[in-house]
Amino acid sequence: MFLLLFAVVMGSAHYYVWRRAVRNTTVPGRARRIGTGVVVGLFVLMVAAVLVESPVLAWPGYLWLAGAFYLAVVFGVLEVPRLLLNRAARRRVPVAVGAPADEPDEAPEDPDRRLFIARSLAVAAGAVTVGTIGYGMTQALGAPQLKTIPVQLTKLDRRLAGYRIAVVSDIHLGPLLGRAHTERIVRMINEQRPDLVAIVGDLVDGTVEQLGEAAAPLRDLVSTHGAFFVTGNHEYYSGFEPWLTELDRLGVHPLRNERVRVERAGASFDLAGVNDVTGKNFQDGPDFARALAGRDQSNPVVLLAHQPVQAHEAAKHGVDLQLSGHTHGGQMFPFHLAVGLQQPVRTGLEVVDGVQVYTSNGAGFWGPPVRVGAPPDISLVELHHNFAS
């Protein structure tokens, strides 16, 4: 279903781009046939990049995906100027004898002027698209931003004030991101000396055989109370069971609808984790009751859950703070606007049904190596006692 929807949406975008960048800028003949062939070839390349996990296809295919997306967006924005310019380019002819002076006849549009306008707008759209993608690549491929997020919890014991959880999500190891990406993330986290590390899903886009070496630096994570992991939707597409075994071997402990007690200086809080909602299709869905039932209600509970939308169910079980990812912060503006149709939080700290939910932009990317308006991040969530309570 995803591939079908993807093909329909991007096929429509390619048709629109073809009309504005090829059909409107050429006359029937060789140039139009070549342009049409190029657009069709780029569409096939893009689909191949999604289907075949190969860097050779992924780099050009995913970059063109971003290119087609932004060309369609920019051409859409230029529709009104295009209509106004075409109308202004219409030629006037002399008023016919006997016709009212205030009702001049209007001749057909000048095809040469119309062609000039179409070509000028196509060049402008191309320039904006190239500039946007260039900027977005520097954001996506650069080092993640390091954020410090203070969170107040009413139930938190004062002796736990300042407890720091390094939150990283959506690393997306795959054909475009490998071992060097993991090494940088591990180095950045270790430099902060966190008390605990939480990897909240979508670590990989491929099997252990393909990406085990890329994930290996995770064994070097250093924190007081260890590193923990919950599944994201992409783990289920990549073979989640072998990855859970591999992560456990690397010292990153999966929380499989379960919880652990975290203690410091005689005080404690519960750290729980639930499987991603996609696991339902693999007989491995989230089980909030199993993860949260029977605990000491006087202790706060921090829940790791890949998707912010899981907060609605978490609220029914008295969760104090949920740490999530999945949204990529929208990754490529204006796609940000679509995130709210599925998720209650796009990025940052918000309250959902009484539960504080922190959503990371993620440290990697899916698809195009482009981020616009949603830079990658690693977050240090600092727990504090709510003295106002």
From TrEMBL:
<feature type="transmembrane region" description="Helical">
    <location>
        <begin position="64"/>
        <end position="85"/>
    </location>
</feature>
<comment type="similarity">
    <text>Belongs to the metallophosphoesterase superfamily.</text>
</comment>
<dbReference type="InterPro" id="IPR004843">
    <property type="entry name" value="Calcineurin-like_PHP"/>
</dbReference>
<keyword id="KW-0472">Membrane</keyword>
<feature type="transmembrane region" description="Helical">
    <location>
        <begin position="34"/>
        <end position="52"/>
    </location>
</feature>
<dbReference type="Pfam" id="PF00149">
    <property type="entry name" value="Metallophos"/>
</dbReference>
<keyword id="KW-0378">Hydrolase</keyword>
<dbReference type="GO" id="GO:0016020">
    <property type="term" value="C:membrane"/>
</dbReference>
<feature type="transmembrane region" description="Helical">
    <location>
        <begin position="6"/>
        <end position="22"/>
    </location>
</feature>
<protein>
    <recommendedName>
        <fullName>Calcineurin-like phosphoesterase domain-containing protein</fullName>
    </recommendedName>
</protein>
<dbReference type="GO" id="GO:0046872">
    <property type="term" value="F:metal ion binding"/>
</dbReference>
<dbReference type="GO" id="GO:0008758">
    <property type="term" value="F:UDP-2,3-diacylglucosamine hydrolase activity"/>
</dbReference>
<keyword id="KW-0812">Transmembrane</keyword>
<dbReference type="InterPro" id="IPR051158">
    <property type="entry name" value="Metallophosphoesterase_sf"/>
</dbReference>
<keyword id="KW-0479">Metal-binding</keyword>
<keyword id="KW-1133">Transmembrane helix</keyword>
<feature type="domain" description="Calcineurin-like phosphoesterase">
    <location>
        <begin position="164"/>
        <end position="329"/>
    </location>
</feature>
<dbReference type="InterPro" id="IPR029052">
    <property type="entry name" value="Metallo-depent_PP-like"/>
</dbReference>
<dbReference type="GO" id="GO:0009245">
    <property type="term" value="P:lipid A biosynthetic process"/>
</dbReference>
<feature type="transmembrane region" description="Helical">
    <location>
        <begin position="116"/>
        <end position="137"/>
    </location>
</feature>
